[in-house]
Write a structure and sequence with these properties.
With 184 residues, the chain is of the alpha+beta class. Helix content is 31%, strand content 20%. It has helices spanning 10-23, 28-45, 57-60, 88-93, 166-180; strands at residues 63-66, 71-74, 95-97, 105-108, 128-131, 134-139, 143-151, 154-156. Helix 2 (28-45) runs antiparallel to helix 5 (166-180).
């Protein structure tokens, strides 16, 4: 990072250097401001353009943690509900999901009763049977409805959302310069 200053006279130079030495060790304020700006931008990316928002848990897990010399912007830690958002990384980087304890993954059938804001498990439904890789539910004597699609694995494409844009870096540079020069 390059910081430019224009000063005149020995006294003014010494004053600015003393003042800067007090501010340099603690950049927490401009770093927090930068982190919040980036968190808002990431939150906007998670509102449909990158991912279809269902529960807002991923958005709620975005966190900004500044110290005196750096800022960490993270996703997937504790959400507003208090639980970790385990799928944060796979949505950003992409990858393959495989079942851990069962033979198949149960994917909610699009538009079906299991495709809700609060995901349901196959075990939550009664009167079910499997045909051609789909779990169906019997309703009455003649009606059935699809609940879940069974898959051995699912490939999730990378949908990057956790990144800085050039304008963010320029904003950080200017914020730190303004902070050091006392214009912040």
């Amino acid at each position: 990072m390059q910081i430019r200053m224009q000063v005149g006279g020995e006294e003014q130079v010494l004053y600015l250097l003393r003042d800067m030495s007090k501010k340099m060790p603690n950049l927490k304020q401009p770093l927090m401001d930068f982190g919040e700006r980036v968190r808002r931008r990431i939150s906007q990316r998670l509102s449909g353009a990158v991912l279809k928002e269902r529960t807002a848990r991923l958005k709620g897990s975005l966190d900004v943690t500044p110290d005196n010399k750096s800022v960490v912007i993270s996703a997937g830690g504790r959400s507003l509900r208090g639980d970790a958002v385990r799928y944060a990384g796979i949505h950003d980087k992409g990858g393959t999901i495989r079942p851990k304890t069962k033979k198949f993954l149960t994917i909610p059938f699009p538009g079906g009763p299991a495709d809700t804001r609060t995901p349901k498990r196959a075990a939550d439904f009664k009167n079910t049977f499997i045909a051609k890789g789909i779990i169906f539910q019997k309703i009455g004597k003649k009606e059935i409805r699809p609940l879940f699609i069974l898959k051995k694995q699912v490939k999730i494409p990378a949908r990057p959302y956790l990144f800085f844009e050039d304008s963010d870096i320029n904003y950080l540079r200017k914020s730190i310069q303004d902070y050091i020069m006392g214009r912040w």
